User: Fold these one by one.
Assistant:
Number 1:
Amino acid sequence: MSVFADSHVHLADPAFADEADAVIQRARAQGARALVCIGESAATALLARRLAERHAGFVFFTAGVHPHDAASWDDDTDPPAVRESVANGAVAVGECGLDTHYDHSPRDRQLHALDAQLALAAELRKPIVLHTREAEADTVDFLKRADAARVRGVLHCYTGSVALAEAALAVGWFVSFSGIITFKSWTDHTLLRMVPHDRLLVESDAPYLAPAPHRGKRNESAFVSLTLARLAVVRGQDVDELGWQTLRNTKELFDLPEAVLAAPSTMSDPAHS
């Protein structure tokens, strides 16, 4: 059983309803040392915060507005809501970003909401959790603005080009992979190998994108172990070593407490032994 962190999970999603606590416990039993619960709206950020308070030191949360909902971004109400969440323990701003695949919100509104959240991240000295889909040119431009603002973050559930990943890595960002990399349709092993070991994260994006052999079912954090195992095979790394490395990377990006690395006596961190 390998140690890991789920750097992106939607535990506040209705798909988990009254089962979130059980999902959290299954993840812990599978080797998870930290879960980052995403608040992609004011409402989900509040639910995520309550879960983080109930599972202090194991579950952490973020606060932001998803690009699908950017049309509803309000300059008077949303920044104070995000600021309040950060004051109450949110470890990052987001999930925010750009998505021109669905275009649920107009592109100009997506860019406006994203830049407003970048300003908040810079002000609050927090990283950004970035969603990007079919918006590579705009994302590269955004990464330049983030670098100028001294804001780092993560390209979550990454399926984009090597070039965009390189642009993110060049300004100190992290790249996170989900269960998609276990699908038979995934062939971009070059992308999985090119991310440096100290910029690599893994995630579930649960309840979505369950890895094989659970594809098509509701995803959960415990299944990150399967994504981690596949990533280790493709990269030619020991799965335990990779698990610890991605855990340390998650801790670094989100400034999590040192205690997440304090393994039970049955485990040992190769970097601390």
Number 2:
Amino acid sequence: MTDIATRVYNHTWKIDPIVRSVLDTDFYKLLMAQTIFRRHRHAKVTFGIINRSQNVPLARLIDEGALREQLDHIRSLSLSRGESTWLRGNMFYGKRQMFSPDFIHWLENFRFPPYHLERRGDQFELTFEGPWIETTMWEIPALAVIMELHSRAVTKDMGKFELQVLYARAMTRVWEKIRRLKALKGLTIADFGTRRRHGFLWQDWCVQAMIEGLGPSFSGTSNCLIALRREVEAIGTNAHELPMVYSALARDDRSLAEAPYRVLADWQDDYEGNLRVILPDTYGTSGFLERAPDWMTHWTGVRVDSGDPIAGGEIVIDWWKRRGQDPMRKLAIFSDGLDVELIEKIHKHFSGRIRLGFGWGTLLTNDFRGFAPDGGLDPFSIVCKVIAANDRPAVKLSDNPEKAVGPADEIERYRRIFGVGEQARQPVLV
């Protein structure tokens, strides 16, 4: 097993580059990229880093030269022959050849496009502009670089023994969480922690701990590279990015109202089975489900990803019942800000009423709370979101207005078109 403390103490970026492979990304990114490749590869889309935790002065903590060095390294990466073989021949969600030959051929020749980076006060402005099929690939590695450079900045002056103690405490914390989760009957849980991980080696350790500690209750990891290396399932479906871009491309209010459903119609053409999981909260879950066409009720499940998870789960169950579906045959995946206490609460509330799944993210792969002075290693909330598509602003509303993204006037327009009423604000921690 890797001695993480020693590697952290001795590392240079050439030995331990933060992003090691094109596959050091989340599985949903490749699934979405294939849909983009087939339908909208030439749309011009801009992504940008948004640090929701403005109290974390990233530009004061992270050296700009080191950040450029890591981003430039990512631009040198290409898919290896072994990685291509894995994508071509491996079984994902019970299906071989999930990815078409033409998409794999594109991915084999893909190189990350240029980026724009400049310092703005205590924060960095980091954006990616170009064809959607290219800029989408930056989201996960860009976040991983910033998060790990932040971790390295905080730990750079720690000695060998201090680092050994730090990681021993963190390992003990993860293992105690796993022991509690093991007591939950019928648990199904996956690692969703790539985007805001403490570091690659740490995420890999967490996955190995879950493999040993949870056995069959551990369903896999969202990280493709770790899934390949540890021979576990690659897990993921789709994200808010798709409806945000489809909506930004809409030319009028009517087309905008229909855009989130066009996304799922395209997804249904591309994928089947357990990949047909609805993410309904981009513009408000309740309104989205009320207007949803009947064919969507036959999908496998729904991901509950913002707002109060208990209330969100109840909304979904009620929708299934009113549409003549048996919730016991449906899957609800919870993935927003989860930690062991919330997982236990959700499991207790919904167990025996629906099929449950959990995507455990930041507080699995980056829970060093209280282990550094002044909370220096505490996780914080940072995202890489669509800013514009074909020069039109992109918007996300969410079930939690604290997560809304976009210009104020466009947010109000979207709220009107999608019939979003009053929403309860919830703290965004991770």
Number 3:
Amino acid sequence: MATVKPFKGLRPPTREICEELACLPYDVMNSEEAARMAEGKPKSLLHVTRAEIDCPAGTDVHSETVYEKSLENFKMFQEKGWLAQDDEPRFYVYAQTMDGRTQYGIVGCAACADYANGIIKKHELTRPDKEEDRMVLTRRVNANLEPVFFAYKAVPEIDAIVAEIAKQEPDYDFTAEDGFGHHFWAIACPETNRQLEQLFAEKVPCTYVADGHHRTAAAARIGEEYRQKNPRHDGSEEYNYFMAVHFPDNQLKIIDYNRVVKDLNGLTPGDLIASLDKYFYVQDAGAEVFHPTRLHEFGMYMEGRWYRLFARPRAYDETDPISVLDVTILSKRVLAELLDVQDLRRSTRVDFVGGIRGLDELQRRVDSGEMRVAFALYPVSMEQLINIADTGNIMPPKTTWFEPKLRSGLVIHKLD
């Protein structure tokens, strides 16, 4: 069963500080965007998670200078009282509102051992170089600065406790610049914290990494590294755990994650459309944006027109949980076979566009001449994600996009 435990969170002492300190996760922006987001906001946690914004222009983001600046700023945030640690371990409820829909997660510490033994299940591969970056920063500040995004199969008893907590006045409550609402409660009642920890231990056999595979892998590796260096290790140390927000699966919604390609691999638009007929029914959908509305339905935009593609049965193996995914069908039957994009992780000819940007963004990138063709996909479901993880399979790159993104800075987990 899953281990999820309360911890002594390091967090903003007031709503006002929280609203200025909270920021988007480090990996959804580049350095220039981070600098703009933090401009005029000395309390923004971006000064810790993206400390290159406080270093000379052109500084390597992976340099010692940047990591040292992160530590300096992290200490300063605590010295100024912008971050203060709770006296007792506790869980926290973190709710997010988007388009009138609210999802409620429980912030608690997951066990590094659960990642090693498969109780924390993943659906994506990770790259060691990206893991190492977060590991270096974690070592330097000795804390999990940002939570990872986990899912679990909903448990009514946990839902009932969270519903009661949500009736109370939140500790933090603000609407971010993107229009998404963020609501946060610290659970002070020892009995409620005990009940939640017990319910996870009794009712939740496993958890699923929804977003943050690299941070999860890095946290687990840090835990093992610290364990090996401590001759008095007994398993109770904080480094054996890392911070995650655990959401019930029935509250989560995955949005589309689309593709744009720079060229047609020597084909003319007519050649491409003719070649698609082998695996797809192809219809001209006109100049209006075409939104896929069901599995195996795709939108393709090229030369000012949209096309509806619907996969023929021969395009996939319905008994194979990977083959049946729309991202696999597109990757195998179109990107690889027709456009010669063989490695989605490394190819410079393909790019990925999160659905939060809308399909107009696909049109813009093609109409600008930057890209030649765009493909819109129907979103993966939570059921598919869980099935992939439960069967030990790995999804193709850039398959899932979750919104809203977790805001960093509402609470931090120290490793000592």
Number 4:
Amino acid sequence: MQSINRTQLFRASCLSLLVTSLSFGIRAGIINKLGIEFQLDKTQLASIVATAFYGFPIAVVIGGFIVDIIGMKRLLVMAFIFHLAGILLTIFATGFWTLYVSTLLIGLANGTVEAACNPLVTALYPESKTTKLNHFHLWFPGGIVIGTLIVLLLNQIGLGWQIQVGIMLLPTLIYGYLFSRLDFPVTERVASGVSTSGMYKALLNPLFIFMFICMIGTAITELFTGQWIDVLLKNVTQNAILILTLDTGVMVIGRAFAKPVLKRVSPQVLLLISTILAATGIYLLSTLTGNSVFFAAIIFGMGVCYFWPTMLGFVNENLPNTGAIGLNLMGGVGMFAVSIYTIFMGRYYDNIVKEAGGSNAFAGQKVLQTTLVIPIVLIVAFAGLVIYMRSRNKTAPLKTAAV
């Protein structure tokens, strides 16, 4: 790896994830404007938002199957092309279908970034996988913070949503240029000599299947709630988009300090604590009003902070033979679950409004209360995981975990 500059590759990876998260933050900030300008109801808006979430799993799963074959560099060139096309088509959108297709392209780009960069980070930092995955993934909430602040600032200035979307072009062009110049390592699975059949066999491990199912719940808890916060809480506070900025800001800080946290608690204990805080946060978001909602946002942000990177890190540390496909199947099922849940909740929201005679005063809070069931179930699941890992570690040979 003498020719591999892992610092520059890691920075370029963070920049590509920044574009991914900017798309989430900016879209969350302009979604109501799009609905008004193009006369779209909540079901249509949910379909558009969900498109990004199912474009992601399509790309991340396909990427997981081919990344060992074509290499991470070619995948990231594809991500750049998808991002560029999706951003431009969004800027020149004329209605539902152009927004739908452009959001799908951005979702494909986002999934391709994740398909390449997650195995890239674990290949670059095999000695500290979960920590570096947390550092990499801090740019997801970081970009959402930047994106929502851009929306707020440009709204105050009076600039349109097209300009807000266009801002994503600059980091897209930069990361495309950086990746085109850098040399890449092979994936960790290829470097370690694990066969393709061995990788697929590892996917049948009950522990992987358990984590695969749990990823559905952690992804919905984190991403559905965050992406729809402006819609769900717009009748609770006049600054709903600031709630997203606040809770994602908490996530940035938490992931930045992942190393000292993971030195004190194991990944499975961290997941249990996180789920308890997330459930508490969603409950408070669904019941509090006014400025007290911002306190709920802090609790929620602390809860979902470590979900995504720690789920990936746990699988890669404890089931390393699952390789890139294991990482990408986890990400894929998470985003796919969010897409389906978002469509379902969009219709549920509209039905609540219809039953209330057109009033949407409490629709968002009811959606949050329904969503609360998911982290409550996860508390039980992760408590069982903690017990299982303690019993397994007592019987397994001692080894140093890569955190």
